[in-house]
Amino acid sequence: MAKNILLVHCSPRMGGNSSRLADEFERGATEAGNTVTRISVGNARIGGCKACEYCFKHEGECCQKDDMQELYPLLHQADVIVYATPMYYYNFPAQMRAFQDRMFCGIAKPFGISQTALLLCFEDKDATTCEPALASFDVAANYCKQEVLGKVIVNNVYEKGAIEGNPGLEEAYELGKSIS
After folding, report:
1. Which string of DSSP letters, residue by residue, matches 102-139?
2. What Rg, from alpha-carbon coordinates, does the chain have?
3. Which one of 46, 82, 130, 157 is at 20 to 30 Å from 97 when CA atoms are compared?
4. CATH class of the domain at 4-177
5. What is the per-residue pLDDT across 41-78, written as a single tens digit (0 to 9) for each?
6. How many helices (H) and strands (E) does the chain have?
7. Which residues share a beta bridge with 84?
């Protein structure tokens, strides 16, 4: 059965390495018959959660009126959420964290996203430097009761285009194609 996939690109750099991973994932997922909605939070105007709990008193509505308002309906329609992101300073970029923080209102009005995946790329030659970020991803998926469908991890890429020819692009494609 085809899925509604929300592909969240988290880098402010368009056309970079994480964008290429997202391209290949999207190609595979679309070929498998899924509906993919791709959003970019890298340059979106999204403030962090204020922990005000306004959403609990207003059926999941957030008090902040920023770009996140356009994204909430997409979160409610999604079966799967996939993050395509670089790693900055050994963690996810602030843009991704703000987006995830604002998903807090999904506790008051659940999104119903049952599956997730991660497409991660970063500059460091040591592939183990991403382990804290992976642990954070796993804890969040577990808390949200989301099955992790897969992770594509590509290290040693920084300059735009450095990922071309990397086996991670095929892995991203195959991950997308495996979802049905």
Report:
1. GGGGGTTS-----EEEEEEE-S-S-GGGGHHHHHHHHH
2. 16
3. 157
4. alpha beta
5. 999 999 999 999 999 999 999 999 999 999 999 999 99
6. 6, 5
7. 9, 119
Helix spans in 32-92 (H): 54-57, 68-77
Average pLDDT over residues 6-19: 96
Q: Where are the domains of the chain?
A: 4-177
Question: Rounded to the nearest 10 degrees, what angle do helices 17-31 and 167-178 cross at?
Answer: 40
In the chain, the largest separation of any two C-alpha atoms, in whole Å, equals 50
**Do the Cβ atoms of 103 and 60 come closer than 8 Å?**
no
164 token code pair: 């071309």
Q: Is 108 in a helix, a strand, or coil?
A: coil
**Residue 9 DSSP symbol:** E
Contacts of 167 (CB under 8 A, 6+ apart): none
Q: Which two tokens stand for residue 72?
A: 């909430």
Query: Coil, helix or strand for 8?
Result: strand
